[in-house]
């Protein structure tokens, strides 16, 4: 009887580990409907599983030694396929995206709600001028001890998003200059 209980527990833990990895790659409500929850998987193990093969990986220049790997993950500020910047492998992630109007959306991950994908993100809407937005980003990312190593990346992404939101001044058109030809005598 003891052996069957051990086998059931081992099968359940393997199934939970499979469900956790599967949820990282493709979060589907079917697994939650089956009563499975994500097992606690370390960040290093997750990175080993997803670093060479995931749906966000973009390889440039082929598969040779000169190739560069980028990532289109939603929480990757530099879009690099590295452990430090990965939005899949890290418990604490930061994302900055444009929102309606001239506002910017700052999203951070809640570490205690990581096993519940619908509740795992905290969104902050930044609507002020650029300096106040930058101060808010620094306070939420670096000053509070969340991810101080991503401070410069978050500010760079904020600057790029804010620059893309600015609209060119209307009414200013470039005048065509007349071609000057020497007068004939």
TrEMBL record:
Residues 45-164 form the Ribosomal eL28/Mak16 domain. It comes from the Eukaryota. GO terms for molecular function: structural constituent of ribosome. Keywords: Ribonucleoprotein, Ribosomal protein. Gene3D superfamilies: 3.30.390.110. Belongs to the eukaryotic ribosomal protein eL28 family. This is Ribosomal eL28/Mak16 domain-containing protein. The lineage of its organism: Eukaryota, Viridiplantae, Streptophyta, Embryophyta, Bryophyta.
